[in-house]
Amino acid sequence: MQDLRVTLVQADQKWEDKTANFKNYRRLLEGVSTDLIILPEMFQTGFSMNTAEMSEELTSSESIEWLKQLSIEKNSAVYTSLIIKKGDTVYNEGVFVQPNQPTHYYSKRKTFGIAGENDNFASGTSEAIVDYKGWKIQLQICYDLRFPEIVRNKILPNLSPAYDVIVYVANWPEKRAVHWNTLLNARAIENQSFVIGVNRVGTDDKGHSYRGDSKLVNALGEDEKLEPKVECVKTLKLNMNDLTSVRKSLPFLKDA
Q1: Residue 150 sits in a domain of what CATH number?
Q2: pLDDT per position as a tens digit, 175-222
Q3: What is the dihedral of CA 13, 89, 129, 40, to 10 degrees?
Q4: Where in the sequence numbering do the catalytic residues fall?
Q5: What is the mean pLDDT of the chain?
Q6: How far apart are CA 10 and CA 199, in angstroms?
Q7: Could you give the number of structural domains in the chain?
Q8: What letter would DSSP give residue 207?
Q9: What is the mean pLDDT of residues 19-30?
Q10: What is the dihedral of CA 132, 153, 93, 173, to 10 degrees?
């Protein structure tokens, strides 16, 4: 199986300014060649509770169309989240787009009560695992990280693990950076999978600061980090042979 090139985009998001954020992502991604682009949570608004003005209908979302166009231009999949309205219900919705392929969706299951997300957004009820280029990718969003039970890996009847990679997109504040770093590594070790966390940098209009700490963690808990507190983009490779080797030498999943 081929390596998977994954591009982590650690951006400073402009508060509720979709046009400015679109422009900034294009600047950051100039010249990038990759298989999967990962943008922070609520990629074009920041972590806003202003659902009345910032939400977009799922069936007519201009921002999802923008992501689809980016995917085609880069010949790459893209994963991120945004504020989506389905009928009368609003979700923090993960979207995984591929060039000229159906879009996969994941509704964030754990809404962040401290910030009032649970008062403004409905919670999702099911997981989403995407099969992309032979890799099984578990989609997650920010606060989901604190709940290991919702991503517990397992051996399926066909004797293969349920997934190979967990991806977290986030607006995770600097004051809880230790939690972010520790939990990402724990999810990789306990599930014997790669884990990718992409977080924003800068300060939002609520006064919360973000240091990024975006990174890739392998199944042994060893990580490769982006430089903190600055906008940066880095493309990293995931090797399936490395992952398979760990699973064979430490066959813990069969006991889950």
Answers
A1: 3.60.110.10
A2: 999 999 999 999 999 999 999 999 999 999 999 999 999 999 999 999
A3: 0
A4: 41, 108, 142
A5: 97
A6: 6
A7: 1
A8: S
A9: 98
A10: -110
Parent domain of 124: 4-255
pLDDT tens for residues 230-241? 999 999 999 999
The C-alpha atoms of residue 205 and residue 45 are separated, in whole angstroms, by 11
- CB half-sphere exposure, 243, CA atoms < 13 A: 25
Per-residue b/e over 104-140, b at no fewer than 16 CB within 10 Å?
Answer: bbbbbbbbbeebebeebbeebeebbbbebeebbbbbb
Pairing of strands 215-217, 223-225: antiparallel
Nearest-10 crossing angle of helices 18-28, 62-74: 10
Distances (CA, A) of 10 to 38, 114, 130, 176, 240: 9, 24, 23, 17, 25
Mean per-residue pLDDT, 91-96: 98
| Percent of the chain scoring above 90 in pLDDT | 99
**pLDDT score, position 50:** 98
pLDDT for residue 196: 99
Distance CA 169, CA 39 (A): 7
Token pair 């009345």 is found at: 52
CA atoms within 13 A on the CB side of 232: 14
